[in-house]
Each structure stands twice: as C-alpha cells, then as structure tokens.
Amino acid sequence: MAVHGYITHADQNRRLTMLMFAAYMVAFQLIAVFVLTWFLLMFDHQNTVLSNPAGYALRYALPVALATALLFWSAYRGHAESVVKAVDVKLVDKRDEARFVGIAENQCSALGVRRPRFGVIEVAEPNALTVGEGPARGLIAVTRGLLDQLDDDELAGVLAHEASHIRQGDTKVMAANHALMRTAVLLQTHNILRVEDWRQLIIPLVIPPMLPLMLVSGMVTMASMRIARYARRGLKLARDHIADGEAVRVTQFPEALVSALQKVSGRGSFPGSDDVEAMLFDGQTDRQGGSHPSAADRAVAIGELSGDMMLETRSRRDTRVKGQARTYRASAPRPAKTERPQRISEAERKKLLLLFFTDRERFNKLQKQDVDASEWREDDKRNMFGLTPNLVLPTAAVSVFVAILYWPADGDLTKFGQKVGPMALVNMAEDMSVGTFCTGPSYPDGKCHNGKNRH
Predict the structure, then answer these.
(1) pLDDT at 129 over 90
(2) Residue 353's CB: how many other CB atoms inside 10 A?
(3) Region at 73 (left for phi over 0; alpha for psi -120 to 50; beta for the rest)
(4) Residue 338 CB neighbours (<10 A)
(5) Model pTM?
(6) pLDDT for 150-176, tens place per residue?
(7) I need a labelling partner for 116 at 20 to 30 A (CA). Which of 56, 271, 384, 392 fits?
(8) Residues 132, 165 contacting (CB under 8 angstroms)
(9) Could you tell me if residue 259 is inside a domain?
C-alpha cells in the first residue's frame, strides 16, 4: 500500500470523517423510515412514507435528522470515555508519573497537540493507545509494562507516534467510525421489523402486507451494517507508517523507535485490548484480520525513511528507577482471535426493557454484550435481506404461501398488490381509524358496507 505524506493523509482523514457522518445520516434515515412507519400507521397514517412521502418528509425527516446528528455527536464525543472504561485507564499528571508525562508533553508540544490528557493502564504487557476527537481533546495512555520496559528514547518514539495520530486526525476518524458502527449495530439488533426468528414469519400469514415491509426493512438495516463495515475497512494501514515517520521527524532517533517495536511487537495483548485494537501501538496485523502493518514492515519503512540518520551505536537516555530496566521479560506471543462474544439469550432479551427501568447498569452491560457480539458477525452469511441461511427457506416458503393464498381468482396483479402491497397497511390503518375494519372473505361481495371498499 502506498504511504502518502502527512498533509495528504490528514486531508484524507477529514474527508473520511465527513463521509462517515454522511453515511451515518443516510443509514439512520433509511432505518427510521421503516421503524417510524410501524408507529405512524397507528397514529398518523396519512403521513407515512407509504401514503404521503412529501408529508412524511415535511413532518418527520428534519426531526429524525436532528436526532441522528445528536446521537452521532453523543457517540462521537463519548468515544474516549468509553475506551477509558473498557480498558480501565487511570488518568495521571506529573505528580503521579513525572517521567511518562514529562516525555509525553515534550512530544505533544513538538507536534502541536494541545492540552492532551495522559493515562496509565495497570497491566504488565507493553502497549499504548490514543483516542480523542482532535488536537485539544486527545488522550494518550500507556501500560505499566511499556513504562517499565522502554528507556526514555524508546518511550519518546512511541509517544511521538501516538501524538501524531491525534495531530493527523486518525483519532477523529476512529471516533466517527465508532459512532457509525455502534449505532448501526444497535439499530440492526433492535429493528423490530427484521426477520430474526422463524416464528416472526407467522405475522405475514395473518397480515400479508407485513412480508414486503419486513424484507425491505431487513435489507435496509443490512445495508447500514455494510456501510459501517466498509467505512471501518477504509481506515488505512498507512496511518501507522505515517505516524512512525512523524515520530522519526520529531525525535530524530529512528533506531530507538525500531527498538521499541522489537520489544513490544506481539506482546501487547491485555484484557480488553481486542475491543480497542485499532487504537493500539501494537495490535493485530492485517494478515491476522487487524488494522496494523507488521512490526517487520514498519521497521523496514523506518529504515528506508531514516537513511543515514540510523546510528545503532548511539547511546540512549534512561531515567527509569534502578531495577525496572532489568525486569523485562518477554510475554507470550499475541494469540489469534478465537473466542467471540456471545449474543444474549432470548430470555435476557425479553428482560431488557424492564431492566432499562429497574437496573440500568445490568441493561447497559447486556446491551453492550449484544452489540459487541453483532460486530463480530461478518461471517454469519446473511444475505441482502439480512436473513441467515437457516431462515432463507422458511421465508421463501411463507412468500410462496402468501402468494398462493392471496392470489386473486382472475389473476389481476392490481388486486394482488392491493392485498399484499405495503399500501394495504395504510388502508387497514385508515379503516381502523374510522372504526371500520373488514376484508373481502368476511363478506359475500368482498366489500365493506359500512366504510370504504377494500378488495
């Protein structure tokens, strides 16, 4: 993959963030159309997207857009705090960690990163991560293992690399992608119109217009998931190469950064790290399904960039407390991702609404577990309608049964559309709103004598 310079990369990040926001708005509006249709049929059937698209747009499109923007902004601005909680980051200052904060502040100042926060993760594995929505809201966190195992120049190289991610907008892209992906997954898992269980297919047998609505709704939510995943894949591997280049430019010490890579590579996995893999200094490589170039590729790129600047015999600064420098012990290699989060059970799912009011902490935990599990589900082989393989045949069978059961004797497609098409739901809602609800089979002539005709 070609590695572009800082200015080009930063410009790409700005465009990518805006594209993610636009994709988020479009996906949310599409899903809202189907979710709101269900409720509007009961309370405002004259202004559904099925009966009056212009009326729907005038009444509901703008409020949905505003709500969408607020949700996006909330998830976007809350990304850093969610990471802090996920990996238990302890915020620190110079009084707590003079060596770490002093080195970090120097690198941030050199790169123009303003008012950053710093944190420590109390685990033995060596690693670092960066989050934040811009130069004035950055957070750089390191593990205790990284502080113990790297000398000052190695640590400066890693921290300059992390500060560069903030400066060039990588963390903004991560926050935007987090907002897009989490909300898309949340909408997908809570879309009441998608087909997730064969028992839901009983509904179209009783109310045939529900069949196309459920299929199209599943298609839209699946499309929103694919948009989110496509955006995630757009997070370029080049970002680590560019951050390494910026670190070399600032520190003028490429061999220290290469040494840090050699000490950290494959040893940085700690509890919760897989949830924030894309934000780590050492994470899963692209060959392992992650978003990082390999340490070997990074070292080669640093060597090519540095040229004569690379001096292996140069002495390095080390102000660690005596004994810390001798405690280095290689951790076990990073394991491949094998265990995947499990979706919550149906019994737990039924309790979610009650837990929202009675036990918010438990509600948040179960919902996060369900969303985490769904983010893994790229390999569940869902088709364009969002149907898993075991639901394809039942859905096809119900579709055929509905077609046979409601096919008019004269073969008139218009009549069939009136019975099975989505507009039939609008007609049903209209009849119910005036106290009249009847269909052809209940009457000899197929007409409703105390209301409007429904064939």
Answers:
(1) yes
(2) 10
(3) alpha
(4) 5
(5) 0.68
(6) 999 999 999 999 999 888 888 887 887
(7) 271
(8) no
(9) yes
Query: Cα(140)–Cα(159) distance, rounded to whole angstroms?
Result: 8
Range of the domain at 141: 1-332
Task: Look at residue 388 and tell me if it is in a domain.
Answer: no
Hey, what's the torsion of the CAs at 220, 222, 227, 229, to 10 degrees? 170
Work out the number of other CB atoms within 10 angstroms of the CB of residue 359. 13
Rounded distance between C-alpha atoms, residue 66 and residue 219, angstroms: 24
- The answer for residues whose C-beta is within 8 angstroms of residue 31's C-beta and 6 or more apart is 187, 191, 217, 220, 221, 224
Amino acid letter for position 127: N
Q: Does residue 455 lie within any of the structural domains? A: no
92: phi then psi, degrees, rounded to nearest 5:
-135, 165
Total domains in the chain come to: 1
Q: Residue 151: inside a domain, yes or no? A: yes
Cα(198)–Cα(377) distance, rounded to whole angstroms?
19
pLDDT at 309 over 60: yes
* Angle value at C-alpha 315, between 314 and 317, nearest 5 degrees: 135
